[in-house]
Write a structure and sequence with these properties.
globular, binds zinc ion, binds D-xylitol-5-phosphate, D-ribulose-phosphate 3-epimerase activity, alpha/beta, RibuloseP-bd_barrel, single chain, TIM Barrel, Ribul_P_3_epim, 225 residues, Aldolase_TIM
Length: 225
């Protein structure tokens, strides 16, 4: 299993974002997770496409843009222009989910849908062909540093079996990412429930040695396998 770690720069030091991105990539980050909040879909406000564009030349790994905005289509266009590699959004925030996914796919980018803790899995059913990634929220979106909601493990197992079934039929593998409260101490059981990509914000940027945290996470993943 090819596990990937996606540090969320939501918990980085904003006074030196470029340096933080470089440091966390040097420490072994596979993706840079970029949390976009609009104070409308979620009760918090972060950064937009201009910051993504500024970080694009700094990042040697794909930028994984998580849109917590409503509506989504204009921001999808803006982040395509800004050089995002993966763009995911919440189905509740789009009037026409299939159309929003097409916007991303037609630009040659990878597309993801994000399921909140209470969002049912069946929203995935008719759009699997357009998905490169499913992102399961293991906290309610809006803030870093919250605790992992244990029920996410059951949901992960359900989505894993849906995606495995789809892969058996089509040969196409869809990434299963988890976001919220992921730490070295719980990453193994999250992997065992079916996730392959792990967002971690406070667990990484809350420590001074990023290398040590990411190494600890990878060791836990090796033991989980
Ligand atoms: C929450 C964001 C997460 C957040 C995760 O709305 O989508 O990406 O940064 O932070 P931690 O890892 O601290 O829970
Ligand atoms: Zn996120």
């Amino acid at each position: 299993m090819n596990y990937r770690i996606a540090p969320s720069i939501l918990s980085a030091d904003f006074t030196r974002l470029g340096e933080e991105v470089r440091r966390v990539i040097d420490a072994g980050a596979d993706l840079i997770h970029f949390d976009v909040m609009d104070n409308h879909y979620v009760p918090n406000l972060t950064f937009g496409p201009m910051i993504c564009q500024a970080l694009r030349p700094v990042s040697t790994v794909p930028i994984d843009v998580h849109l917590m905005v409503e509506p989504v289509d204009d921001m999808i266009r803006a982040f395509i222009e800004a050089g995002a590699d993966i763009i995911s959004f919440h189905p509740e925030a789009s009037r026409h989910i299939d159309r929003s996914l097409q916007l991303i796919k037609n630009a040659g980018k990878q597309a993801g849908l994000v399921l909140n803790p209470a969002t049912p899995v069946h929203v995935l059913e008719h759009v699997l062909d357009k998905l490169d990634m499913v992102l399961l929220m293991s906290v309610n979106p809006g803030f870093g540093g919250q605790s992992f909601i244990p029920h996410t493990l059951d949901k992960l197992r359900r989505v894993r079996s849906l995606l495995d079934h789809y892969q058996a039929q089509t040969g196409r593998r869809i990434v299963l990412e988890v976001d919220g409260g992921v730490k070295a101490g719980n990453i193994a059981e999250i992997a065992q429930a079916g996730a392959d990509t792990f967002v971690a914000g406070s667990a990484i940027f809350g420590q001074s040695d990023y290398d040590a945290v990411i190494r600890e996470m990878r060791q836990a993943l090796v033991q989980a396998a």
